[in-house]
Every structure is written in C-alpha cells, then in structure tokens.
Amino acid sequence: MDWDNARIFLAIYRIGTLRGAAALLQIDQATAGRRLAALESSLDARLFLRTPGGYVPTAAGELAFAAAERMEQAADQLQRQMQGLDHRLSGVVRVAASETVASYFIMEAIRRVHVHHPDIRVVLSASIQISNLTRREADLAIRNVKPDNPDLIQRHLARKEVGLYASRSYLAQHGEPKPGTAFAGHALVTYQQSVLPGWSDTFCGEPTGNGHIAVELNSGMMIIDAVAAGLGIGELPTHMAPAYPELVRIWPTRSEPYDLWLVMHGDLNRTARVRAVADAIVDVFEADKV
C-alpha cells in the first residue's frame, strides 16, 4: 500500500467527502480522486460506496483503514523521533489551546518566543476541540484534562476557576438570580450542546433547568462578549473578567475550579524549538501566579 495514497484514503474515511479530504490535505479534489482510484486498483477492491451523503466505507474499506492507520502511526512516530534530534531554534511549532487561554496566555508566550528566537514560527490553533498529539495535529497543547496516554508528557500549569457573571445593564433590567431557584426568570449564555454536551446543566453548582438559554456559542471569547453585551448570565474565567468593566460577578462565593496542563508527545521533548515554546508558555503562567 502506497503511503501517499493511504493518507488520502484516511482523510476520506475520517471526513466522509472527497472535497473535505482534499481541503484538509491541501490538494485539489481531482488529485484526491485519482489517488483513491489508484489505491483501489492496487488492492483490487472497492473501499467506499459513493452515496449522496458522502463516502461510506465498505467491508474492504474497514480492513484497509486498520492497516492504513498503522502506517500512519509508524510514519508519525518516525517524524516525531527525527524532530526529537533537531537542535535548531528555527522552524514551525504547532500549538493548540482554547480561545480564552490563547488570548490571555499564549499570545504573550509567542511574543517572548519571537523576541528571543525570531526564526521559530508558531502556528496557533485556538479551539476547544482536543488536538490529537499522536497524529501530530499539534506539537504542544494546553488542556484542562490531564492526559492518561503514556506516550504523552504533561506539566501542570495552573488551577483557575470560573464564576457567574452578568452585565450591569442585564442586572439593572432583570435583577440578580436567587440561589436555589435554578435561574428562574433569567436568560443564560452557554456553549453549544454539540461542542460541550452538558455544559449548560449547571452553572457553578446551580441547576439551570428553570432558566432560558438565550444563546449557544462555540467560542469562549464569544461567550464573554455575549454576557458583556447583556444577553444573559454565564460562567466566565474569573481571571479574564476584570478586563471587562461592564461585568458584575454574581454570588462571588460560588466558583468551579479547573486545571490547565501543558501536554506534548514524549518524542518531541528534546526538540529545541518545541522546548523553547514550551518554556515560554510555562514562564507566562508562572508570572501570572506572582
């Protein structure tokens, strides 16, 4: 099985469309189609059923996926190990973090990297989706869940907390909610259920069943903006709220803690440019504790 063809097959399998796979791999759709046809020809098997809803793997496709995934894992491991021998303070480092963490911490870390190591180029993906470090979707990730994968190494960065907030204009119009009423008579701002299922079930330990969800968002920064705009009550990081003077904290004694971890694959621990970015991130979080 040719690896160039196999990686296109994997992208089609995971995304379900030829166009989506081509976009992911940054090739044109015709090339992706030719590569898939070449793979099917070499294996003498149909790997997908072409349906109006997308590409559905056949039984042969499921078997091919298992083999192609092993090829991918071996290729990724080789690349990580080669990177681990790289002592140059130049090149690309991919970092994944949530929007709020990226805005408040990672931008400053990138600034420090560019001051000391201008030949390092940081590619930052700001999303609450967890990047797969084994597949090299990122070299470094900041997560709020400690990984249990033995191939990953982690460092605890900080313990933060979220609190309840509303805008001054919202409270002037609706008043403050009463504890124990499950936000009866109040509007709430939350993540989309498809992004973080169950997020809106409770806010800082208070059930939300009697509240009205005014807006669901897929962005932490947009949630802060929506609460600041007076759309409703939301859970916000307490360390970011002071930057928004129109916000008022509700029930200040209530909060929910969360931890932040810096995670990388063990094979990259000795890569100079990855270590430089990791050290800058750690320094920013350490400075925040002072």
TrEMBL record:
GO molecular function: DNA-binding transcription factor activity; sequence-specific DNA binding
Keyword Transcription regulation: yes
Pfam families in the cross-refs: HTH_1, LysR_substrate
Example of a GO biological process term: DNA-templated transcription
Keyword DNA-binding: yes
Keyword annotations: DNA-binding, Transcription, Transcription regulation
Domain (HTH lysR-type): residue spans on this chain: 1-58
Family: Belongs to the LysR transcriptional regulatory family.
Protein name per the record: HTH-type transcriptional regulator DmlR
Natural source organism: Achromobacter kerstersii
